Amino acid sequence: MLELKGIYKWVNTGINRTFILKDVDLSVKQGEFISVMGPSGSGKSTLLNIIGMLDDFNEGEYHFLHESVHKLKEKQRSGLYKQYIGFVFQAYHLIDELTVYENIETPLIYQNIKTSERKAMVADILDRFQIVGKKDLFPTQLSGGQQQLVGIARALISKPKLILADEPTGNLNSKQGEEIMGLFSELNKEGVTIIQVTHSEKNAGYGTRIINLLDGMVANHVTL
Q1: CA 70, CA 118: separation in Å to the nearest integer?
Q2: How crowded is residue 123: how many other Cβ atoms within 10 Å of its Cβ?
Q3: For residue 136, which of 107, 104, 100 has the smallest C-alpha distance?
Q4: What are phi and psi for residue 9, nearest 5 degrees?
Q5: Which residues pair with residue 13 across a beta bridge?
Q6: Is the pLDDT of residue 195 over 90?
Q7: pTM confidence score
Q8: What domains can you pick out in the chain, each with its CATH number?
Q9: Helix, coil or strand: residue 168
Q10: Residue 68 main-chain phi, psi, to 5 deg
């Protein structure tokens, strides 16, 4: 499904170059459930953002569904992202001016899905996440856990082929966290590819493979 070859990401500070990712190779097959682990500052979120086409890299190649991402223009990358990828952000990234309903609906508008179909899809996912009563509220009126649920619902609404999740249960209580991981597990059984960044050994255990990062490099792969 996707392949990273020799990915480097760095920032220049004066005459010094600080590496965030160093020579990262990663191959992900359709239907895998991968957990990326490692200490803070090891490059986990940066790696996820590069896979999600939200961040550039300085050197290397990235192939996604037979497209050479590193050769695409920004508009083409954005098109691929909107069509195939659902992203669950650690910081939610909800749009404050939009209601819960409108936030969840946004990806469907990008995909030019008809209004009647959009309504049915949003109603279904509001029900699935038990947030029907919150649909007319704005993000600032929600708790952190509720915002996280809305962010996850938005990522899943367009039925993406690839879900990228950065600490998906970080702001949820343990019961909600287990429900979300159970949902990810279900989606994975249906063929959705999932890559999550997590500090939780328990959450990592839901996956089929763990990739450990250390100082911006892949330290090892563990197959579960």
Answers
A1: 33
A2: 13
A3: 100
A4: -135, 125
A5: 16
A6: yes
A7: 0.93
A8: 2-94+161-223 (3.40.50.300)
A9: coil
A10: -90, 95
